[in-house]
Design a protein that fits this description.
This protein is an alpha/beta fold. The protein folds into 3 domains: 101 residues, no CATH class; 34 residues, no CATH class; 171 residues, 3-Layer(aba) Sandwich (Rossmann fold). The protein has 16 helices and 11 strands. The strands form 3 sheets. The protein has a 6-stranded mixed beta sheet with strand order 8-7-6-9-10-11. α11 packs across α13. The two termini are 23 Å apart. About 10% of the residues have low confidence.
Length: 375
């Protein structure tokens, strides 16, 4: 969202709220405009909190506000043509039930009704369904849709690469505090606005992806995500392991996900075969640790932790990785099941050296990891 459009978008959103019975005054809009200059406009949740406070949203209007906000402010920016409820609002001052989108159940007092209403709210879309669909339940058509979705998500991921805001010249968000400090030198006259923008970090990520048979239902989706991420984080190195270790980075064509996956499946030894996690990690530490891992690197291991080989070397290899990398994240598709326990021998050996064990069973779970890769 361009800064010069902020007032226009804010006025449109306030008008939408008023049309659906949520009272917003002009003075509230002015307060909101000032407040938004002090927050990160790329952070949707920060925008929501600011507008909730400055618009003085009453408890009875909270649900409607959240639904309208979800339809209007997407990924930290205002939509030009947001989806709105199809039911026409009645005139102000007329007692009427709150409008709901078609196909929803009006929320009652139970948690189940509220959850259902939330799922059917304006944030609900085919994209949301796809992002939450388990990889093992996805079809070839879902994969094609997900490839297109990943391309649309790239700008949003780019915007989240860093939360740090640094001073800039030219375009950027107004920096009110620095502007006032600058005005002190001109007798209190604000001749120009100081501005700030999001710093662009260059994350260093090393991905080790298990391509054994037990990962078959997940691996192409995981690698599609990795290749999409590599388009915005070019210093990402990717390795595959099964019964041996393969450096995948030279094989990758991030703009051609399907073609690349076909080449990998036919050309990488041991693809969809057995697993020797311990031996593969030892090989990585021996051959590549010093060259590709530094104190700024985040090492991501994508594996279910099911090992048919010797696991005795896992602890030593993980210890070496942990001592060199900034952070180790293990993404396990099995941990998407709330009943999952990391009882496999490989997982037990690796756990003491893992900074975070997280699920990797759908696209939404993978997106949650992005801030940790760019931090």
């Amino acid at each position: 969202m361009k800064n010069e459009d902020l007032v226009v978008h804010l006025a449109r959103f306030a008008g939408m709220l008023r049309a659906y019975g949520v009272e917003v005054r002009i003075s509230d809009e002015l307060d909101a405009t000032k407040a938004l200059t002090l927050v990160d406009l790329f952070d949707k949740e920060e925008i929501r909190r600011v507008l909730h406070i400055t618009f003085k949203i009453q408890p009875r209007d909270r649900m409607m506000f959240d639904r309208l906000f979800a339809s209007f402010w997407v990924g930290g920016r205002a939509e030009s043509n947001p989806r709105v409820p199809t039911a026409a609002p009645q005139a102000r001052g007329v007692t009427r039930p709150r409008p709901y989108p078609q196909g929803t159940i009006q929320a009652g007092n139970s948690d189940t009704s509220a959850t259902h209403a939330e799922d059917q709210s304006f944030g609900y879309s085919p994209d949301l369904v796809l992002r939450r669909k388990p990889f093992e339940a996805c079809s070839d058509r879902d994969f094609a849709d997900m490839e297109r979705l990943l391309a649309r998500l790239l700008p949003r991921w780019t915007a989240r690469r860093s939360r740090r805001l640094t001073p800039v010249r030219g375009r950027g968000m107004p920096d009110v505090r620095r502007s006032f400090r600058r005005a002190v030198g001109t007798g209190g006259e604000m001749l120009s606005l100081a501005r700030r923008a999001r710093a662009i970090d260059d994350p260093r990520v090393v991905v080790l992806c298990d391509t054994s048979g037990s990962m078959d239902a997940h691996v192409r989706f995981l690698l599609a995500f990795v290749m999409a991420f590599k388009r915005i984080a070019r210093r990402t190195e990717v390795f595959a392991f099964n019964t041996s270790l393969v450096h995948l980075t030279p094989w990758l064509e991030p703009a051609r996900i399907v073609r690349t996956l076909e080449r990998l499946a036919s050309g990488v030894p041991g693809w969809s075969g057995g697993t020797r996690i311990g031996e593969s990690l030892v090989e990585f530490v021996t051959k590549y640790l010093d060259d590709v891992v530094s104190s700024r690197s985040v090492v991501v291991i994508l594996s279910d932790g099911l090992d048919r080989g010797d696991t005795s070397g896992i602890a030593d290899a993980m210890r070496a990785l942990h001592s060199k990398a900034r952070r180790i994240i293990w993404l396990n598709p099995l941990s998407g099941d709330p009943r999952y326990q990391p009882t496999a021998r490989a997982m037990q050996a690796a756990l003491p050296f893992i900074d975070r064990l997280a699920p990797a069973h759908d696209l939404e779970s993978l997106e949650r990891i992005l801030p940790e890769l760019a931090a």
